[in-house]
Specification:
Number of helices: 13
CATH topology of the largest domain: Creatine Amidinohydrolase
CATH class of the largest domain: Alpha Beta
Strand order of the largest sheet: 4-3-2-1-5-6
Shape: elongated
Number of strands: 17
CATH superfamily of the largest domain: Creatinase/methionine aminopeptidase superfamily
CATH architecture of the largest domain: Alpha-Beta Complex
Helix content: 25-40%
Strand content: 15-25%
Structural class: alpha+beta
Largest sheet: 6 strands, mixed
Mean pLDDT: 93
Distance between the termini: 42 Å
Radius of gyration: 24 Å
């Protein structure tokens, strides 16, 4: 049935949503279990729909959330009846009973076969639009389409719900801290597994074993373990090359815990010692990241931080990258939002506010040298500046070399 629900937090989110909408009805479906015979299920065969999770904290499937804005407001959770025979295959499920009321904090819980009439009555009382999260999950849901046709004014809930997700409440920040802390332990294990001749997938195995050993629900995205020439491919995740002495390794990986994910990247030498050339490129990337972090505070924007990082890299390149300054080889954006998705929802023109979480991840990629460096950390905006959430993952060349020397290599 999932992790315990912070009922006060999700109730506050629902109230905030209804206050923003003013009038109308909200209908949000939960996700379905994926089909082993049809889908390529590589981890768990079920992960909750983010919008449903945001407003309920529940990982139960095939459920519906109905909210009515205006007046005293109304919240109803609809759950399928329990099936003891099916539960012998699937495990215990949440049903429409007092247990669901206690675990969800929602006082009114009804069986799903009463949804049609309840929705019709709610639309009649509210005299307002029907808000639904228009995404792939809902567009592929036949019953959802049938229910929506009952309303004449249907609007997309996602813009409002997604904007709310930009600023994390204390429960969300706690979940993200847990995901980041688990990810840090995985990156440490990956460094300790480094040695010339090891295969990329062996490092991946050490990384993800540490994730699961420390409580991760799953990986937040496919783990990237790129060595040598693969360090210059941004989203390389085949992880099948055998490393060679002198290679750098880029590990971009994050654990998911409680539906929230981390996103951390570290670059380290497979033999435990940076060459002078590798160290020079690495230190420029690291200093660029610090320059962006030092400028992070409420009121700034992602675009401003990106310009600051590129200006810093350009002005400190010297001849490191030849005739061009190194920012020419910084071929992706500096940051993205982070939360339930690794590239989380949100408008990038929004000025930073306390509670926002995003990445800072400069990089330099030199394919002609089979040399790529990326350093990525997760950052929480605070009232006065920012906090490195992933600071415990070794980051300076000295820290990395020290850790790898202790790793029994």
């Amino acid at each position: 049935m999932g992790r315990p629900v912070d009922t006060a937090s999700v109730a506050a989110r629902r109230r905030a949503l209804l206050a923003r909408l003013g009038r109308g009805v909200v209908l949000v479906p939960a996700a379905h279990e994926r089909e082993l015979e049809r889908d390529y299920v590589q981890d768990n065969d079920f992960r909750q729909n983010n919008t449903f999770f945001y407003f309920t904290g529940l990982e139960t499937q095939d459920a519906w959330l109905l909210l009515v804005a205006g007046g005293a407001g109304e919240t109803v959770l609809f759950l399928p009846p329990r099936d003891p025979l099916q539960e012998r295959w699937t495990g215990l499920r949440l049903g429409p009973d007092s247990t669901a009321v206690r675990l969800s904090g929602i006082a009114r819980v009804l069986p799903t076969d009463s949804l049609d009439s309840a929705l019709g009555a709610a639309l009649y009382r509210a005299r307002g639009p029907l808000y639904v999260p228009l995404d792939q999950t809902t567009r592929d849901e036949p019953r959802f389409r049938d229910l929506v046709f009952a309303a004449s004014d249907v609007r997309n809930l996602r813009p409002v719900a997604d904007s709310m997700r930009l600023v994390k409440d204390p429960d969300e920040v706690a979940r993200m801290r847990k995901a980041v802390d688990i990810s840090v332990l995985g990156h440490i294990a990956a460094m300790q597994a480094g040695r010339p001749g090891v295969w990329e997938y062996e490092i991946e195995a050490a990384l993800e074993a540490a994730f699961r050993r420390n409580g991760a629900d799953r990986v937040g995205y496919p783990s990237i373990v790129g060595s040598g020439p693969n360090t210059t491919t941004l989203h390389y995740d085949v992880n099948r090359r055998q490393t060679r002495d002198g290679d750098l390794i880029v590990v971009d990986a994050g654990a998911e815990w409680g539906q929230y994910t981390a996103d951390v990247t570290r670059t380290f030498p497979v033999n435990g010692k940076f060459t002078p050339r590798q160290k020079a490129i690495y230190d420029l990337v690291l200093a660029t990241q610090q320059a962006a972090f030092d400028s992070t505070r409420p009121g700034t924007t992602i675009a401003q931080l990106n310009r600051i990082a590129r200006d810093y890299m350009r002005s400190h390149s010297g001849t490191l990258c030849g005739a061009q300054t190194c920012d020419a080889y910084f071929i992706h954006g500096l940051s993205h939002w982070l939360g339930m998705d690794v590239h989380d929802v949100g408008d990038y023109s929004t000025p930073l506010k306390p509670g926002m979480v995003f990445t800072i991840e400069p990089g330099i990629y030199l394919p002609q040298e089979a040399l790529g460096v990326r350093i990525e950390d997760d950052v929480l905006v605070t009232a006065t500046g920012a906090e490195w959430l992933s600071a415990k993952a070794p980051k300076t060349t000295a820290e990395i070399e020290r850790l790898m020397a202790r790793g029994g290599r």
